Amino acid sequence: MIDVRLTPEQFAEQSRLQAASFGALCRRNAAVGDSIGVLACGWAADVATVQAITAEAILVSGEAPQRLYFQTAESITESTREAWSVAGDLEQFTGVARVLKDGRSTLARSLEPAIVGQLSDAWMELAEFSDIPAPTIMDLSRARDERLGETDPRSFIAARRRESSHLALRAARSLAHGDVESAVREAYAADMYALEGYLVQTALATDDPYLLTVRAWWDLVTDAITRISDLPGDFAASVAVIRASIVTSMGEPAATRLIAVLPRH
């Protein structure tokens, strides 16, 4: 069982680490000219930074900290919806940095003044992304369609769940036949199918029409998995190491919801 519950102090630290990780992924995507990756990870870094500052404000606030946190969480959701409800205007931007800057303005308008005052120093510098062209709506639509294939989002989610369950059964059969290596590989694939379905479902729930949050979280999780140096020889221990990498990179509150949809191994 993976315990992902966090104290407020741990949540603040988690958010800062995620902001830094998303920033690093943003720069990595920029290095290969991946404007969609820059946009997705850049926006995720900005939101994680807001979460960190809000959590820290709660720690020093003696007045209704829950109200401050939930108001900010609601503002982030509404600002995300507002930012992407006018996605058709992306063509007006000359670079992805300008898109991110405009998104910051949208986000800042809905936050407490005390939080906004700390953001200018906390948000990552955007100048290094000025030469990356902004993705067009056609670019975003193509990337979304490539992920979903020939299906609509809800059918994709259902298919990923079926594939995850099927691979989990294959892993169990491989393990029963003593093929631990195949069992670990199939269990890993089952978890990643479940993860992708969960991410698309969450994107739908937060009105993310181009699945940018899916791209950001997928980059973060796969980066964490590549950092696993070695796996134990035991099936259960190997699965535990991989899952710990997945859920800790996601962090709370997403980790608790993700664990609930991972297949049983």
Q: Which terms would index this structure?
A:
2 domains; 265 residues; 0% strand; mainly alpha; 11 helices; single chain
Explain what this protein looks like in three dimensions.
This protein is mainly α and 265 residues long. It has helices at 8-31, 35-60, 65-85, 96-108, 113-122, 137-148, 153-176, 180-205, 212-226, 235-250, 254-261. It starts with 7 loop residues before the first helix and ends with a helix.
Largest sheet: none
Helix content: over 70%
Distance between the termini: 12 Å
| Count of alpha and pi helical runs | 11
Rg estimate, integer Å: 19 Å
Extract low-pLDDT stretches.
Answer: 62-73
Shape: globular
The total domain count is: 2
Q: How much is the average pLDDT?
A: 84
| N to C succession of SSEs | HHHHHHHHHHH
Task: Give the structural class.
Answer: mainly alpha
Please provide the count of β strands: 0
Beta-strand residue percentage: under 5%
